[in-house]
Amino acid sequence: MGSRHSDTDRLLAKQIKQGSLRIWDLLVRSQSDPAYRQLAILAWGGYGKTTLMRHLTYTYAKQKHRRYKAPKLIPVLLYLRKWRDVMAQPQAPSLPDLILQQHVPELPEGNKLALPPNWAANRLDQGNMLVMFDGFDEVAEGQRQAVSQWISQQMGNYPKARFIITSRPGGYKDYNGPNRPKRTVFVQPFKPKQWEAFIHRWYLCQERHSLSDSQRNLAAVKAIAAKSAQDLIQQLHQREELTTMATNPLLLNMISTFHRFYPG
To answer: Which CATH code fits 2-186?
Structure first.
């Protein structure tokens, strides 16, 4: 067992050094190392923290996590800007009660679900749930102590469950719960190959949706998308300030949108 852990540690260290570590690698690691069951993911604005949490939620909801060899988990995405007042109140509900009594009923058709009273508590106890607290930096400064204490208590109550907290680095400095996430990772900026791939996929998606007969003329659509994408990539490489902006996914999306309508 120790050898297998050390091999995985070396692999993770190599991936971190190369900037190729994925969230799925960490979730896979959580199956053998409890330290990876509680993660803090930090990044500045526009780096895709919320998008990443939505990606996890969607992938698990569609049961496509198997392609990553990730553990089977029930995703629960809680936006802290929405639930911070509930978590900060003196008589705040427990995590199972919050999920079952308030979160689930607000999901699309969630009020039609007839779940057993202990459904959420049992899933948390068994380690079958992934709880994502998105946007700790969006919690008001006056509430951060209470919210971090509440999150800390829930992580302590359910050590087998998986927890992820996302935040900008500045906001996360105010997290002061006794149970801090065991591992902290940072979202890295796009590298040139990554933002080039993003642009190609972005343009292909835009062209396919803008042409009603795109399926019939898929070859033509791909050609149009590839030409537009290559034009933008060339412009980015020619201007250092745009190359710097392209490392931020949100800014890159804005640049791509502007280029599509004003290619010159």
So the answer is: 3.40.50
